[in-house]
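Re-run with default settings, no changes from the original entry. Doing this only to confirm the output is reproducible before filing.
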Amino acid sequence: MSSQPPRRRRRRRPQSESESDSPLPRRRKKKSGTSGKKKRKKSANHAALLKIALIASIGIVLLGGLFMVDWQDVGVAVGMDRSPEKQLTDLKYYQKKQLDLIASFQDKEQAKAAIPQLNEITKELAIISAEHDDWHTIEEEDEIQEHLKLAPEIRERMSQISQEIGQLRSKHESLLREEISRLKGNAAFKLYVTHLVNSAKSAGGKYAHKLMMEKAKEGAFKKGYSPVTADTKLTEGMHLQGICDQRYWEECIVITVNQDGTVRVNFQNGGPSLFDTMLERDRLRIPDGNAQVNTVSPVTPERVGGNFRRVEPSRPKRVPTGREF
């Protein structure tokens, strides 16, 4: 039996050769610096967002501060009137403060020591009252026009506030008397406190009157008027406007120009000398193109039913305010 030759084994290729023949997918090379740029960009965006958030927060705080500031108090500091709402709030505050102070008096010595505080509170009340009187009665044409531009609901609210202020002022007088009557002590002590209150009211009223008179004088420099200065030539019978005792501008006629610079005027369009008033020049102004000499003869009182009644010549009527207070 013949033996078959041994089967030849097929030689395998080395694995390295087999892999070298088949192409392998290439690995993507990383670009140098790409990862760092992304990180830096992300960090920059984050910082920008934080900065925007910080600015927005500051803006909100500042905006809130604008609403929290009482701009009317700032206005009072620079000479502007306080708002009607502020007048009402301050009036209630100082009225209560005055009543509480009086209620704390136990004897004459304590009341005497509190005079400076009582005077200061009463002066503030007088200023508020004067500001209210000046606010709710408007005489100047430009102020009337500005008031008429307000919305009806605003004018209605202003009217309500004015009425409430008037009621509080009237009621406060009776509350003062009641508070003084409740004080412990004899009649002499209560009379002494009443004297202190009346003296404080008198001083406060004079201060407020002077303050509002100075404000009224600013009207001499309004558009359409010329202030009367030391160099202004005035003649008898000249038509001017002057500040009357009620602190508003009123038509008047020059009666006499005195050597000391003062001017005697008549607010009754040439009426009896009983109505003449001596004014300093800073309480006079000349309407533009209206400095004519008076041609109306003086009028005399006429007796009617046992009383004297003035027969007034025709004169410009004051423009109604429209506030209906």
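The longest helix spans residues 34-68. The chain has a mean pLDDT of 75.
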